[in-house]
Amino acid sequence: MPTMADVARSAGVSVATVSHVLNETRPVLPHTRQAVLDAIEELGYTPNTLARSLVTSRTRSIGLAVSAISNPYFTEILQGVEAAVLEHGYSLLIADPHDDPEHERKVVQLLHERRVDGLIVAPSTDPRALLGYLGRHAVPTVLLDRVIDGRADTAPPFDQVCAENTEPMARLVTHLAGLGHRRIGLVAGLPGLSTTGERITGYRQGLATAGLPLDDTLIVPGDSASAGAEQATAALLSHAAPPTALVTANNAMTIGALRALRTRGLSVPDDIALCCFDDFAWADLFSPRLTAIAQPSRELGAEAVRVLLERLASLGRPARTVRLPCTFVHRTSCGCREEDGETPAATRAPRSEPPRYSENPVHPEKGSLS
Q1: Which long-range CB contacts under 8 A does 90-94 form with residues at least 24 apart?
Q2: With b meaning 16 or more CB within 10 Å and e meaning fewer, what string describes 302-341?
Q3: pLDDT digits (tens, 9 = 90+) for 252-272
Q4: Dihedral of the CA atoms 109, 297, 351, 344 (nearest 10)?
Q5: Which of 74, 348, 351, 357 has the most CB atoms around its CB within 10 Å?
Q6: What is the per-residue pLDDT across 17-68, written as a single tens digit (0 to 9) for each?
């Protein structure tokens, strides 16, 4: 097996120069660096990762704690994280906290004990133990998807990456109101997560923009799960004055709502209109096709990696929150005709809109799961 000394002889440089190229511990002239890389490729040299970590105090590994098994939304985010991590020459360690606060702190501690350089975490509804651990150990961390109020005593400021939630939800409501609906129900997410709170705020803003009165009995928590949404939809349909349109606040709850509607023999959109927050792969295969807000899932994962790497390069800079825009995907479950096709430009989120940055703490009210 070739050694670092073999690489140095082949490239005509010192062993120290090879080490600087591998560990990025000192600038090396471009032609010298290329000679070392060519020698590594020719000889098939494999660096000793453990030895490199002892030299640099870095393992070039990142820990990711998201509920990817129980929440399909995070599966796409995971793909974005993985691609970005590999692109930058890092390895990825993954743990599923199952949206359980106690388990969340344990898996984050396990990742930290494996000497990851930094963490990307989607916090649970009660992240106090998590934030306390991260703060005590000064772990470079990016909070993903669900924002934390940095003004709370238990929440030191961390970098955060998430999607816009309020305005896109308001857009769904005003779209339904523009089609003539006056009673619009919301199947909301799990209480305690910022995404739920922001989407409820957006729902209320949409009603206000449309000049419709707020009826809080039309907001029912579906707990971000299919079964919970099925129960929430049944409760809305049992209302003395049931809604003529529904908005579901994540993809899993859309499935539960559709199941409840089918059980009652109701047709979408003939009997009731339906829009959902979260587009998903098969939304275009339903009949009718589902009008939805599409979150930039993979881009969120890639952005979280980029922000974490910037944090690792500059540990002292102020924490910030990055928000990525969503896209309104206009289909037919809202009651629009198939031939209406594309969303009018005035209501479509610009695809080229850049991320929005802010220094922490500046966060909306708290609420639920993506």
Answers
A1: 90/60, 90/61, 90/62, 90/117, 91/59, 91/60, 91/61, 91/62, 92/61, 92/62, 92/63, 92/64, 93/61, 93/62, 93/63, 93/64, 94/63, 94/64, 94/65, 94/66, 94/68
A2: bbbbbbbbebeeeeeeebbbbbbbbbbbbbbbbbbeeeee
A3: 999 999 999 999 999 999 999
A4: -130
A5: 74
A6: 988 887 777 888 999 999 998 998 888 877 665 455 445 456 789 999 998 6
pLDDT tens digits for 174-220? Answer: 999 999 999 999 999 999 889 999 999 999 999 999 999 999 999 99
pTM of structure: 0.77
DSSP states of 165-213 = -HHHHHHHHHHHHHTT-S-EEEEE--TTSHHHHHHHHHHHHHHHHHTPP
3-state helix, strand, coil in the chain (%, to 5): 45, 15, 40
**From residue 282, how far is each of 27, 73, 258, 346 by CA, in Å?**
49, 13, 14, 26
